[in-house]
Amino acid sequence: MARKKRAPKAANLPQSTQVTSNTCFVVMPFSKTTEEHTESYWTEHYEKFLKPLIEENTQLKVKRSEAVRGNLQAEIILELVNAPVVVVDTTDNNANVFWELGVRQSFKHGTITIRDVNSPKPLPFDISNKGTLTYYPNDHIKMEEFRKAFKTALTDCVHNPQGIDSTVLEVIGGRGSLVQTLDRDQNIRRLEALLNECESNIKALDSILSTLKTNSDLEKENKGNEGSINTNRLSTVCVEWLITNRYLDEATQFYDQLEKYYASLVMVNGQLSTWETSPKSTEKWLQSYLPAWQTRYQAARDILVTSKQKLLKQAI
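Given the sequence above, the corresponding structure tokens read:
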């Protein structure tokens, strides 16, 4: 007998994490990394150097991850993903710092890396091409240069949040990237479904018009037969999703035309629901609007075909 799969447990996310739109999260070692850089050194480095430096140059609220109650790793991840600005001190090549930098760079831009000039080891190759600001504890002139560059970097992160500083995001999110390819393929599938819906509505409209003509002919011939009604309903699911989410990169006129198409679908469905109880008034209304709307439906199909062709060209 096969065992039932258990649903995965939800992560116990900490309740204390509060990331605001003006948070600057500082990533740095917790504990001793060298004989000189002890746990107390890093605490003082944060409290007396980094935190005041950030606060004097911005309106950012500075936070540093701490060993608190709850799921510490989950808290750090939330901070790294949500904080608008993250400052990473890579001094001494601490493994935890590099892990946190990797998490940040996988989700968001707005990251500033800094480093002590006296750090005993060079940066790993993987991040050596990332611009890193160097501070000079024993050289006040060069330290002043660092302060100015650091202030500029903080200001840029605040005012230009989409500025590219993550190679990871640039590779997976840029033009021709995997993400763009997946988005394009998904939109092509959505358009195919939308075109099928549109073709179905055009056929349904033809059927309604045919029924109206038959009923009109019977009435003219005074045969006394009751006219028939059409039970078809026009589909709105795909077009409603498009005009609501606007997932295609198209001009305002494109969406304006589809909104009119959608509105007419809704109105026709409303009239179809009254056909059986109010046949005369319903048929009069349908005869007044449907011939013109037949052209509207065909025009909607044509612009969707054009949009799909544009996406297919991008895939070449």
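Strands lie at 23-27, 61-64, 85-89, 111-116, 132-135. Try to locate this feature in the token string yourself.
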